[in-house]
Amino acid sequence: MDFRRCKFLDYTSHSITALAFSHASVTPDKYAPRTLRLAVGRANGDIEIWNPRSSWVHELTLKGGRNRSIEGLAWTQSGADLRLFSIGGSTVLTEWDLQSGLPLDHCDCNAGIVWSISSSPDATKIAAGCDDGSVVIFDVAGGRGVMMPLRILQRQKSRVLSIAWRGNTQVIGGCADGRIRIWTAVAAEDVGEPNGIATTREGVVGRIIGIMRVDKAPGEETLVWSVVVLANGKTIVSGDSTGSVKFWDAAHFSLLQSFKVHEADVLCLASNQAADTVFSAGVDRKIVRYSIVDNKLRRWANMSSRLLHAQDIRALTSYESKASNYLISGGVERSIVINSVDNFIDGVFRKIPVSPQRHYVHSVGGRRLIALYSDNQVKIWALEQFDSLAEANSEGKNKRLVASLTLNNDENITHVALSADAKYIAVATNAQTKLFLLLPSTQGAAFKVKKIFFPALAEQGCSILSFDPSSKHLVLVSPENEIFIYSIAKQDKLRELPYTGKRTEGTSELKLALPYLDNINNLAFSNDGKYFVVSTISGSVVAYDWPNQSIYWTLPSISSTPSVVKFCPDNDSLIIVTTQMKVLQFSVSEQSLSDWSRRNSGFLPPEFNHLVDKCSGVYIDEDAPERAWMWGASWLANFDMSADMPVFRIPKRKRNGLSVE
């Protein structure tokens, strides 16, 4: 079997523009909640949801669209209900439906472009800093989909580039005129704080009660890109375009200390739960740590720095609990960098590869076609036969671009599928599904792409789709997690398949907080078209009898998310690789684990079990069906499914009455 590395596939990831944990840090004696997630905003408008468990698992992507970006993220929580909000170069605040991946609601600030957002500590309000100098307070205590403008705070003339809450009553804003302003956003008695927060000034709700000025750059205004309030509420920290990091007394609005350790703009700040450590980062790629050295005098020192990024750092966030300690950074380099708050300088860091965490490539081996999609564009390449290794590796040879599609939709593409006979290509977004006919051109060098309009597909968006092996039917998974079948020949209405793959009904906390856990993440057909399998993020797997289009078997529960589901060439054996790097093999016809899996799934090599980059795919050659090739972002593995794993056992010691042998 020959392998070929396809360097011509021009996949490009997008810059990280925002980071936010779903929960605030907790005291060191408490564990992180099971619902802890990290939201990662990208420059193309996508939002990724990551689970820190099992060495960071990418669970979901909320798709953006053309000319959209994510410039700020904020979570709120009421009981077990988690809500995610975003802003992105527009005048609206958007709440997302985590189950469908679609925007749940928009609310216009009516104050120009929104530059920054922050949620209050009690998770009932969101402050939005706007282009016209206003700060708009939204009441989000009413539950999902409810955003009510509460008040607009006193307007000033400069953009509010960064924003943070001090307690539940005051809002701190970093502005484009080199000033940091403090507003009284909510009356203390309205949030159950009868004494409020101690300051030297009292102000009417909505008014500016304090102004602090940073250093002015020669010939231009200084931009205060980032502000953060330490957990004890006594200190405000700012980062600006001169490269300065300043510590301010939050009660008297006076400067405590200033550091000029960055060579360019400071774009982001983060702090720890104990309020004794602060991190700063920005254009010069360094992450700098400051620690308090005198609690009585509140004196800080620049303790250390690390160069972990190759380009600008645009976002920084932290989370601490018992057994969990994360400092997350990201930026123009596109990689998520995971470090430790406590062991910042000496700890081991990890860069999550920029390669896609789910398939952006679809291939038809018999036709030697590869389709790559990104944002709103699809490219189809044809690979020619090659006679030697030199020909295979030669640039510009044995490959040709046979088709290129650019959708006129505003939404980004969610999935693409090629039919087995290479006659059709289906392209889906969250709003609609389009079907194209691939016709050979007269010259034979490329395909002529013809759009086929089907009303039923034009009105149905989907997150995953696939053709059956006969290329006569198209299977779609809707954003609402429904499974539909569309007959291309009959061109009839969509027919819904029964689905019973939900596992989290009994786990009310998880289901309320993260309803997307029941979403389908994998779909696979057997080569003969007899079986059809779907899996969910929560670990449920359901096998269908495809000819009868009925449920055939609900597989035993899997403890972690299936990252890959693949049928073997025998059309009966099903291989599932999980995010915990477990390899399971099931016999669908016998509705049980295979003999190989019973003997070997618990004894996989430690080199495989300890891989941190998850499995991205499985390939099994029909000429060697006993060998399964698996790969991830940084590794390639081969399993011989006809042989048992070597197990090394320690022999028991024997006693001869006088000694131990």
Cross-sheet strand order for the largest sheet: 1-2-3-4
Biggest sheet, in brief?
4 strands, antiparallel
Output the number of helix runs.
5
Would you identify the regions where 5 or more consecutive residues have pLDDT less than 50? none
Strand segment tally:
51
Integer average pLDDT: 89
End-to-end gap: 50 Å
How much strand? Answer: 35-45%
| SSE class | mainly beta
Task: Give me some keywords for this one.
single chain, 661 residues, 4% helix, four-stranded antiparallel sheet, mainly beta
Description:
The chain is built from five helices and 51 strands. With 661 residues, it is mostly beta strands. The longest helix has 6 residues, at 508-513.
Question: Which helices and strands occur, and which strands form pairs?
Answer:
Layout: E1 16-21, E2 38-42, E3 47-51, E4 57-62, E5 72-78, E6 81-87, E7 92-96, E8 103-108, E9 114-119, E10 125-130, E11 135-139, E12 148-152, E13 160-166, E14 170-175, E15 179-184, E16 208-213, E17 224-229, E18 235-240, E19 244-249, E20 254-260, E21 266-271, E22 277-282, E23 286-294, E24 299-307, E25 313-321, E26 324-331, E27 336-339, E28 350-352, E29 361-364, E30 369-374, E31 377-383, H1 389-393, E32 399-406, E33 415-418, E34 424-428, E35 433-440, E36 447-452, H2 455-458, E37 464-467, E38 473-477, E39 483-487, E40 495-497, H3 508-513, E41 520-525, E42 531-536, E43 541-545, E44 550-554, E45 562-567, E46 573-578, E47 583-587, E48 592-593, H4 595-600, H5 606-609, E49 617-620, E50 627-631, E51 636-640
Antiparallel strand pairs: 1-2, 2-3, 3-4, 5-6, 6-7, 7-8, 9-10, 10-11, 11-12, 13-14, 14-15, 15-16, 17-18, 18-19, 19-20, 21-22, 22-23, 23-24, 25-26, 26-27, 27-28, 29-30, 30-31, 31-32, 33-34, 34-35, 35-36, 37-38, 38-39, 39-40, 41-42, 42-43, 43-44, 45-46, 46-47, 47-48, 49-50, 50-51
